[in-house]
Design a protein that fits this description.
- It is built from seven helices and 26 strands.
- With about 450 residues, the protein is α+β, with helices and mostly antiparallel strands.
- It folds into three domains: about 35-165, no CATH class; about 175-305, no CATH class; about 315-435, Sandwich (Immunoglobulin-like).
- A nine-stranded antiparallel beta sheet has the order 4-3-2-1-6-7-8-9-5. Strands 13-12-11-10-15-16-17-18-14 form a nine-stranded antiparallel beta sheet, with helices on one face. It has an eight-stranded antiparallel beta sheet with strand order 21-20-19-23-24-25-26-22.
- A hairpin with a 5-residue loop joins β2 (about 60) and β3.
- α6 packs antiparallel against α7 (about 425-435).
- About 30% of the residues are buried.
Length: about 450
């Protein structure tokens, strides 16, 4: 092939590649029609701030990926889901038709009822809210200087009250950052608990392992309690709401930063009895709120019901080794794949007995907690077996007593209570122990 032909083919190939790449970046015909019908043809990406003048002026600013703050008219935590909904609603807003040549004043755009400024990665966008079109045909708006008739439904989005953009949760701080929690009334501490590794431990009115699920629910109720409405911003007198002194006070100590105090006050006069509204104030928010006392009933529960009924504070599935001492004597180890096997299995033991035994022992839990006044009465003066659980950097044990009148109790080391075991669960565990011990009856 001649040299000139090669050159011509090369030019055609380069030109073809350029056309392919250029057209690939161009919107399809469907996409082009969709962009033409939208107020903003460019997607509103990574919005950093929102501000509105005119109707209920406000200013919102993104703090990080998870949080937005309201900066005006009052400094407060904003509701991220409401803001995301607003951005999606505006970004996907469609145009009924573009309006040319009409007087902005006749369309309610001089001056506009409200003027939005949106700062985003894609640049600054402006959106002015005008009047309603005759015959309920839509809403006049001005997007980046261009007038359009938009769908009437957009009005609700653009004229949402400031309260819609505020956090709907009582506490601004994250419950995940709480390290200690306490409830007091009249200066008396009613309940207190603190994080103990990945679990919660009761510290008042007694010290014991706590039921992490129940205690986490109490923390969530206090922090995430839904707000019914705002009563007063930047209050100067909390006493008139029964908040100084409060009916109850919740103190949240954080892993870092200042502690947060939640005050619960008197009932709202004339409120719907079914809602049972009371005044509330959180020190990390600027307002007195009305909340339903139905949402915080857990704060008045019996502390005795909050004790852990688990035999171990660690999850048995996080252990690497489990030992049984006493009436039965054996040990199980977990391999790199998470499978359990017997260490030095006795003759007559089934090869698959270790997983069944581990499951049976792990399923043991208390049905109730009782005070240990007489160990002999609970069969714990000379325990039947001792279960030892070992993991990376930790070890704990629980004694299981001799059956007394069909009842069996377990006492975790370091705790002042015994746990009544389910009769069925204990019989299952005992049968699994016998199978793993080669049929040998425990003493």
């Amino acid at each position: 092939m001649r040299r000139s032909t090669w050159i011509l083919l090369s030019i055609i190939a380069v030109l073809g590649a350029f056309i392919f790449l250029f057209e690939r970046k161009m919107p399809s015909s469907d996409e082009a029609r969709q962009q033409k019908s939208r107020l903003f043809p460019t997607k509103l990406e990574d919005v950093a701030s929102l501000s509105r003048s005119g109707f209920e002026p406000l200013s919102l600013k993104r703090k990080d990926e998870e949080r937005w703050d309201l900066e005006a008219p009052v400094a407060d935590k904003a509701d991220r889901s409401s803001i995301n909904g607003f951005i999606d609603g505006v970004g996907n807003a469609e145009v009924v038709r573009w309006v040319e040549g009409a007087s902005p004043k006749d369309l309610g755009l001089d001056p506009p009822r409200a003027a939005w400024t949106i700062e985003a990665k894609s640049g600054r966008a402006t959106l002015d809210v005008g009047g309603e079109a005759p015959l309920d045909a839509g809403l006049y708006v001005r997007a980046n200087g261009r007038v359009a008739l938009a769908l009437k439904s957009l009005e609700e989005t653009l004229l949402r009250p400031v309260s819609d953009f505020r956090s709907k949760e009582l506490v601004a701080s994250s419950e995940q950052d709480v390290s200690k929690f306490s409830i007091s009334s009249g200066g008396k501490e009613l309940l207190a608990f603190e994080r103990d590794g990945g679990a919660w431990r009761l510290t008042a009115p007694f010290k014991d392992a706590g039921d992490s699920g129940k205690l986490q629910a109490i923390l969530d109720d206090a922090c995430l309690c839904p707000i019914d409405h705002v009563v007063e911003d930047n209050p100067k007198d909390l006493a008139k709401y029964g908040l100084n002194p409060p009916e109850k006070a919740v103190k949240l100590e954080m892993r870092s930063g200042a502690p947060v105090t939640v005050r619960l006050g008197s009932a709202l006069p004339g409120a719907d009895p079914k809602k049972a509204l009371v005044y509330a104030f959180s020190s990390d928010r600027p307002s007195v709120f009305a909340i339903s006392s139905n949402s915080i009933k857990s704060l008045s529960g019996d502390p005795e019901e909050l004790r852990s009924l688990a035999l171990f504070s660690h999850d048995p599935y996080d252990a690497d080794r489990m030992e049984v001492k006493g009436g039965f004597s054996l040990a199980m180890v977990k391999d790199a794949k998470g499978m359990w096997s017997l260490e030095n299995p006795p003759n007559g033991t089934k090869s698959d007995s270790a997983p069944a035994l581990f499951t049976a022992l792990s399923n043991l839990k208390g049905t109730k907690a009782v005070a240990v006044v007489d160990e002999k009465a609970l069969g714990l003066d000379k325990p039947f077996i001792t279960l030892v659980l070992k993991g990376k950097g930790w070890e704990e044990s629980t004694e299981v007593g001799v059956e007394k009148d069909g009842a069996c109790y377990a006492k975790p080391a370091g705790r002042g209570v015994a746990l009544a075991l389910s009769k069925d669960d204990w019989q299952t565990a005992r049968a699994a122990l016998q199978a793993a011990s080669g049929g040998k009856q425990g003493k």
